[in-house]
Write a structure and sequence with these properties.
The protein has 110 residues and is mainly beta. The protein is built from one helix and eight strands; from the N terminus they run βββββαβββ.
Length: 110
């Protein structure tokens, strides 16, 4: 299955003296969906949540460019099926990057 979507990466910037914030930049990348799976995680909170937490274990193989290789350690999320999913692992296999996602991304966006 083909993939085309935004990948967000963070750059730490000093917004005030001694205060650092992540500035998110999105770039569109193309590639393939290598793995397409999901996992339901049982609630771990006390008191328990009503619903299980959804976690994807999808892997995306994207064609890397110079900017991707310079920032792969700062990748934060992948936009997939209308939602932003947190990247849990990045594997460098030149000329490709393999991105594995987990739960929903709840951090900053551009």
């Amino acid at each position: 299955m083909r993939f085309s979507g935004a990948v967000g990466y963070a750059t730490s910037t000093e917004t005030a003296p001694g205060v650092w914030s992540d500035i998110i930049t999105e770039r569109t990348y193309y590639g393939d969906v290598v793995r397409n799976s999901r996992r339901l995680l049982p609630p771990t909170l006390v008191p328990p949540e009503l619903n299980d937490n959804l976690s994807l274990e999808n892997s995306f193989s994207i064609l890397g460019d110079a900017e991707a290789y310079a920032n792969f350690m700062n990748f934060r999320y992948v936009e997939w099926e209308g939602s932003r999913w947190a990247i849990t692992n990045v594997e460098v296999l030149r000329p490709r990057l393999i991105l594995t996602i987990g739960g929903l991304w709840n951090g900053p966006t551009p």
